[in-house]
Design a protein that fits this description.
The chain is α/β, with parallel strands linked by helices. It has a single domain, classed as Sandwich (Immunoglobulin-like). The strands form 3 sheets. It has a 6-stranded mixed β-sheet. A 3-stranded mixed β-sheet has the order 4-11-10. It starts with a helix and ends with a strand. Keywords: Copper, Metal-binding, Signal. This is Copper-binding protein. GO terms for molecular function: copper ion binding; electron transfer activity.
Length: about 140
């Protein structure tokens, strides 16, 4: 069963690489809304996101605090999530093709307003998703 899961995850990652597309980042200048952003801490550990299932409300501003608690690099890759969200102009450059890279023992923050949907989350570093570094963003 584990081998089958690894095979499926590998196929998904391979197809994602083959069909990668530039992600357009949408920004918002509503500084009053962004100033009251609710903080949500997400820890990146050895091959896991904590929590791995993240629930947000559509239209509400959030400050995602991404803390990499390992010495090696990780990424927070959710292309569809970032493409549909409105991102604070000051944070737009942190998102590249739907991914935020976080160096070892470092923290990155991004302020955004998400839209309704269910979005896949993976670490884009080679092999990390296959080892279980996956999650889901649910925006109601």
């Amino acid at each position: 069963m584990v081998m089958r899961h690894l095979f499926i995850v590998s196929l998904v990652l391979l197809s994602a690489c083959a069909s990668s597309r530039p992600i357009e980042v949408h920004t918002t200048a509503d500084s009053a809304v962004l100033a009251n952003a609710e903080s949500v801490e997400i820890r990146l550990a050895n091959f896991s996101f904590k929590p791995s299932d993240i629930h947000l409300k559509a239209g509400r501003a959030y400050r995602l605090v991404l803390f990499n608690e390992t010495s090696g690099g990780h990424s927070f890759a959710a292309p569809d999530f970032f493409e549909s969200a409105q991102i604070a102009p000051a944070d737009a450059d942190k998102v590249s093709d739907g991914t935020i890279d976080i160096a070892g023992n470092a923290t990155e923050t991004v302020v955004l307003i998400p839209t309704t949907g269910t979005y896949d989350l993976v670490c884009g570093h080679f092999g990390h998703a296959a080892l279980g570094m996956t999650g889901e963003l649910v925006v109601d």
